[in-house]
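Open question from group meeting: does this chain pack into something compact, or does most of it stay loose? Before anyone orders reagents, we agreed to write out a predicted structure and look at it together. Recording both the input and the output here so the notebook holds the full record.
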Amino acid sequence: MLKYLLTRTVVVASLFTVAGVHVMGQVAAGTAPAQPPALPITTQIKKTVVFLESECLHDFRPDLAQITTEALAKMSPGQVLAAKQQPTALIRQLQKLRPSMAKLTQEEIALLAPFALSSLDLPRIEGLAAKMADLTTEDIEGLTPQEVATLPADSHMGTGFIVVFPKEGVAAPTSAEGQATGFGYLVTNRHVVQPGIEDGKPCRVLNYSVLLNRKGDSTSSTPRAESIRLGRGVNWHFSADDSVDLAVVDFSASPEVYDYIRIPVSLFTTQEMVEKKLVVEGDPVLFSGLFIQSFRQVRSLAPSGAQTTLWTGTWGFQAANTGKVTRCAACSIQP
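Structure tokens returned:
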């Protein structure tokens, strides 16, 4: 099933809108009580988008590279003192973590005494902080969630969508919202869940979170964005072909609680549909994604939408994470 999603989903993001998405939320006559009229297509498309946040352990190497003799010469004493405050505070936090202290020599541990640390120059303080924060995946796995929360982290945002795969041998009923039920899978790009993989240097992930709009309830009548913490031990599945930039994991969130739409695999564009010209070049394609410029400024999640035209030419592109050249027909390639 996961192999099916990983090999078929490349064209889903751009083609499912022209393959019958207008029936989402509707139920066949005679099989269930009448449902409310379907939402406008543009609204449906936006509601299929979920947001994913990957938190990575901060990489200090670019920071250290910027602390050159020339850069220090241009800084005033006050600027140097201010620049030392953040790594000093981080060192104080990391002193409480056994794996961080294990990175240091006895001579370096002696430098952590308050007076000794304050007397060090900026490059040395940054170097100590970087060394203490350079934890391996095994180091991170041995920490408690509270300890992980003290580590320096960088946030990476991306989007994905939820696919519903019917239960084997069981007819999938519909929920109260008119959505098909079954096994839910979150589909996104591999570079979203492994930031840095495009450069061959995947980061060390500290936590994953899925962000959805929670519907109004007894505590608040206003819909609001809510983060669902997945933790760091998420069992992502990737294609055996490294040039396929996709990632899949099982995921479930109640559509009665959260305002999103799941995509049944019955809406996938198939090769048969293409051969019968039910989907042809020139068909309009609606797509939606993350408007990253204003993401942190909003209370609820509102994906941006746009329309383009389906193009079915076959062309090659170089996969960033492997350097392999992949052939692609009728694909939607995300930067």
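Observations to bring back to the group:
Residues 31 and 316 are 45 Å apart (CA to CA).
The chain has two domains: 2-56+153-329, 59-148.
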